[in-house]
Amino acid sequence: MNKSVLIIDDEYRAKFLVKYLEEFSDSRIMVDFAQTIKEAIELIESKIYKVILCDLMMPPENFYISDKEFVFNEEDNFNGKKIIEYCVNKGIEKETKIIITSGSVTLSKQLVENYNHAIEMLVKPFSCDELLEKIENTH
Predict the structure, then answer these.
(1) DSSP 1-32
(2) Which of 8, 24, 5 is CA-nearest to residue 86?
(3) pLDDT tens-digit series, residues 43-58
(4) Residue 70 DSSP one-character state
(5) Could you tell me whether strands 29-34 and 97-102 are parallel, antiparallel, or unpaired per DSSP bridges?
(6) What pLDDT, on a 0 to 100 scale, did the predictor assign at position 75?
(7) Is a pLDDT exceeding 90 seen at residue 72?
(8) DSSP string, 89-122
(9) 17 C-beta neighbours (distance < 10 Å), count
(10) pLDDT score of 69 more than 80
(11) Which CATH class is domain 3-136?
(12) pTM of the model
């Protein structure tokens, strides 16, 4: 069974994860990549993912989406946490494994606890094999 994965990361080198996952999963994993929060929201709205892997520290950007409760502008400290809030408010975490990536163990653990363990963390730096294992263990 194919699993669809969305990787959200502002660092271009994260695209290597896409290539790795597609090549080493024997086509069992289909990967989309978003480099901005806006791209991520658009993809999440258009497709159901088994796994969303989101970098915690994303740069602010100016954009607006349809839900009034999620209208942000440049003054907001808009980062990966907003994607998590968006997914939880939409109930997406019930069907989708949400994994945050960060170099900060403390911040990651706080977020996991704040969301009652509805999300998981993967501390940077992590290996591609660690990520592949987390994805493959998704039901």
Answers:
(1) --EEEEEE-SSGGGHHHHHHHHHHTTT-EEEE
(2) 8
(3) 999 999 999 999 887 7
(4) G
(5) unpaired
(6) 45
(7) no
(8) HHTGGGTSEEEEEES-HHHHHHHHHHTTTSEEEE
(9) 20
(10) no
(11) alpha beta
(12) 0.80
